[in-house]
Amino acid sequence: MKAIILRELFWLLLSFVLSLILAFVFLELLHLTSADRSLKEIEQVFSVQFYLIGCGVSFFSIYMIRVLVAAIKMFAKYLINR
Taking the mean position of all CA atoms in its chain, how far away is CA 7? Predict the structure, then answer.
């Protein structure tokens, strides 16, 4: 039981760190970053909101892919043992 909890905590932490990195990629791919150093306050808030949305989408996507891979492994194991 302890191993399962540790594995899930590891994946939670890894997903969070990867989502932070992928949020920057998300903003860069959509060209939502500004090269101008002097942004207005509303532009700064807008950038932070997009970053948080990118983090959330990335976290959700990473975790869903992890669940999907686990389901495929379980299904394959079921077919092999059948």
Answer: 17
